[in-house]
Amino acid sequence: MPGKFCMSLTCSKDNTDKATVAFVVANAAVASEKETLVFLSTEGVQLCQKGYADDIHEDGFAPLHELMTNFVKAGGTIWVCSPCFKKRNLNEGNLIDGATIVGGASLVEFLSDGSPCVSY
To answer: How far apart are CA 74 and CA 44, in angstroms?
Structure first.
């Protein structure tokens, strides 16, 4: 199944259920051989920091840290909204593996061919 898929995630510890389900769906997309991107914005950017997701574990799901690690290992990409990152004074030297800070134009380019995007 060729194609692209984008998951836009605006939550982290403020809604751990949504953050977890977003990565469950993203893992399903990358496993389906889709070029899969998770775009972290607003509070979701917190997840790009090493150790932040370590204590997030929703009942019935794998721990969020594990879901994120597996997503990247499977070839998924994590983009972090640059203005959201800067607003929260996060540490660029503390990015998780697979995370890249990007501007909104990068997301627009990824979606410009009509790729689906689901938001949590």
So the answer is: 21
Instruction: Return phi, psi of residue 35, to 5°.
Output: -70, 105
Residue 29's identity, in one-letter code, is A
Under the banding of pLDDT at 50, 70 and 90, the label for residue 2 is: low
- Say yes or no to pLDDT of 113 above 60: yes
Q: Apex CA 6: angle with CA 22 and CA 74, to 5°? A: 75
Q: How far apart are CA 101 and CA 29, in angstroms?
A: 22
Show the domains of the chain with their CATH numbers. 4-119 (3.40.1260.10)
For 112, other C-beta atoms within 10 Å of its C-beta total 8
Per the CB < 8 A criterion, the answer to whether 115 and 77 are in contact is no
| Tens-place pLDDT, residues 60-107 | 999 999 999 999 999 999 999 999 999 999 999 999 999 999 999 999
